[in-house]
């Protein structure tokens, strides 16, 4: 069966009200990466890091999927191809739209991880440095998100999917964070046709065969309809 691999980034959730990272006024304009998104930052000030992710968890819990998430769920349900969604997003909007088995390569806000024993569980809406691990009782509870300096999840599986893809689409990602920024090159080497859907040029736009500019909720439904009708990617 043919395989379509989709990579999504913060831009796909922007119209659901969740801020991106690198746009003007984005999360990294207001918070220092070293403080809130690194293992060192967490070791220095776990309360600050929990506070940052608690706010994002509450916001994500209130967000609703938009037309772009819905269109990808439709693609998964209706395509005569295997459709694999790989997301850098830690929100649950692909699942809320009805998508199955999205690969969260940067983890999930809704999950907690014990840094001492590796146990994972459903995160409370508000986590604190005083929480204890339900398995080993350590005071080492952290959001199950991948920080700078840590390895993204499920990379072997993702590279396998890219190697077998006939279409690769990147949606709403600036192409500034690796390894995801290299996925178009990986897929193109394996023979996939690569499409970028983004508001603005990304750092890796040249790696794509086709570029569609616009808001994800405007562009993705039409692109999906084209793929489903066999009118190319
Ligand atoms: N529709 C389509 N694209 C959009 C929209 C929209 N409505 N709004 C913004 N964009 C685009 C921006 O032009 C930008 O290129 O989405 C991209 C968002 O880029 P980033 O903020 O860098 O987000 P992302 O690429 O997902 O970041 C990757 O960086 O810090 C980390 O771990 C975090 O997973 C994240 C990773």
Short description:
The chain has 233 residues and is α/β, with parallel strands linked by helices. The chain is built from 10 helices and 9 strands.
Helical segment count: 10
Strand order of the largest sheet: 3-2-1-7-8-9
CATH superfamily of the domain at 3-18 and 63-106 and 152-229: TPP-binding domain
What is the name of the CATH topology of the domain at 3-18 and 63-106 and 152-229? Rossmann fold
For the record, what CATH class of the domain at 3-18 and 63-106 and 152-229 applies? Alpha Beta
Question: What do the pLDDT scores average to?
Answer: 96
User: Compounds present?
Assistant: adenosine-5-diphosphoribose
Give the DSSP E fraction (strand runs of 2 or more residues): 15-25%
Question: Could you explain how this protein is built, in words?
Answer:
The protein has helices spanning 10-14, 27-30, 33-36, 39-44, 46-62, 67-78, 93-96, 155-163, 183-189, 216-228; strands at 3-8, 82-87, 103-104, 107-114, 120-122, 141-145, 167-171, 193-198, 210-213. The protein is α/β, with parallel strands linked by helices and 233 residues long. The protein has a domain at 3-18 and 63-106 and 152-229: 3-Layer(aba) Sandwich (Rossmann fold). Strands 3-2-1-7-8-9 form a six-stranded parallel β-sheet, with helices on both faces. The longest helix has 17 residues, at 46-62. It is globular, with a radius of gyration of 18 Å. It starts with a strand and ends in a 5-residue tail after the last helix. Adenosine-5-diphosphoribose binds next to helix 1. Adenosine-5-diphosphoribose (APR) binds at residues 9-11, 14-15, 20-23, 26, 88, 106, 172-174, 176-177, 198-200, 202, 215-216.
């Amino acid at each position: 069966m043919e395989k379509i691999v989709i990579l999504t980034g913060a831009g796909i959730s922007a119209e659901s009200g969740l801020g991106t990272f690198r746009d003007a006024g984005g999360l990294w304009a207001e918070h220092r990466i070293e403080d809130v998104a690194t293992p060192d930052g967490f070791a220095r000030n776990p309360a600050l890091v929990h506070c940052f992710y608690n706010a994002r968890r509450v916001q994500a819990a209130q967000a609703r999927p938009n037309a772009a998430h819905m269109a990808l769920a439709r693609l998964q349900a209706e395509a005569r191809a295997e459709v694999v969604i790989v997301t850098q997003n830690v929100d649950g909007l692909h699942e809320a739209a009805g998508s199955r088995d999205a690969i969260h390569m940067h983890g999930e806000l809704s999950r907690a991880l014990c840094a001492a024993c590796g146990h994972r569980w459903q995160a409370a809406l508000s986590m604190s440095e005083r929480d204890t691990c339900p398995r080993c009782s350590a005071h080492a509870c952290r959001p199950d998100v991948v920080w700078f300096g840590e390895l993204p999840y499920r990379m072997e599986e993702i590279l396998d999917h890219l190697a077998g893809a006939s279409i690769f689409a990147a949606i709403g990602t600036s192409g500034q964070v690796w390894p995801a920024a290299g996925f178009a090159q990986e897929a193109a080497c394996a023979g996939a046709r690569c499409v970028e859907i983004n508001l603005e040029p990304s750092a890796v736009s040249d790696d794509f065969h086709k570029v569609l500019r616009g808001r994800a909720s405007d562009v993705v439904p039409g692109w999906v309809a084209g793929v489903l009708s066999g009118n190319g990617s």
